[in-house]
Amino acid sequence: MENSLGKLIGSGGTADVYEWTNNEVIKVFKPYVHTEVIENEEYIGRMLNETKLGIPRYIKTIELNNTLAIVYERAYGRTLAEILIETTDKSNIAANFARVHYEINQCYIDNLPTQNSMFHWRISRMRNNLEKDIKKVEELINSIPIENKLCHGDFHPLNILVDCDKYIILDWNGCCSGNPMLDVGWSYLTLNSPSIEAIYGENMANITKEFSNEYLKYYCQYANIDKHEILKYLPLAAIRRLDDNLSCETDNSKYENNWLKNVIFENL
């Protein structure tokens, strides 16, 4: 062990993030996270280091307490979620959030995992849960126009730091090349999760729900598409989320799973 862990600065379903050095943080994965997941994040980090996205750089992967951990460049700022709670101009925040997401989705990066292969893999894992609707799911995923645009995979206000007017996007471990409609659908789904009310209260849930609708409106304006072109693919975002939840139980999964099943089966 090269350094002792510093202050805990972030916690998620698969990992905790600690201070490491003055300019670095370390992402320590939970015991149930498979080695190949960590190695995939390392691979993505190396790919993104070659870009000009202005995001925290991947530094190295080390062994820590008999497991792998990833060291990243440290970024500073307040989360967009904190700012969203405090501001009275939530529509302007939604417009900026949508603009930044749209700009990301206009990028192309070679050699990233493909969205299509990822979703087919997810569906194969969820086949028993999808029961008689598996054919409808396969038809839906095969109807998505194939694109090779950069998709973040988990774009939401807790994964964005704001430093002055600069947005710094974190947690790229789920990024891929694909169609932005699924990327936007995931963000919209996340902002409407019932876990928000269960964990943070009714007021926060109302804020994020209103924010999600404003975000979707602005994104569609930037992309010149109708919102229903995104919403019709929500069952696929819900399948991905349900697969995550069934793989490891978190606070989110306790509140989300029945809701996700309704999103899937009522919208196919």
Automatic annotation (TrEMBL):
<dbReference type="GO" id="GO:0005524">
    <property type="term" value="F:ATP binding"/>
</dbReference>
<dbReference type="InterPro" id="IPR000719">
    <property type="entry name" value="Prot_kinase_dom"/>
</dbReference>
<protein>
    <submittedName>
        <fullName>Aminoglycoside phosphotransferase</fullName>
    </submittedName>
</protein>
<dbReference type="Pfam" id="PF01636">
    <property type="entry name" value="APH"/>
</dbReference>
<keyword id="KW-0808">Transferase</keyword>
<dbReference type="GO" id="GO:0004672">
    <property type="term" value="F:protein kinase activity"/>
</dbReference>
<dbReference type="InterPro" id="IPR011009">
    <property type="entry name" value="Kinase-like_dom_sf"/>
</dbReference>
<feature type="domain" description="Protein kinase">
    <location>
        <begin position="3"/>
        <end position="268"/>
    </location>
</feature>
<dbReference type="InterPro" id="IPR002575">
    <property type="entry name" value="Aminoglycoside_PTrfase"/>
</dbReference>
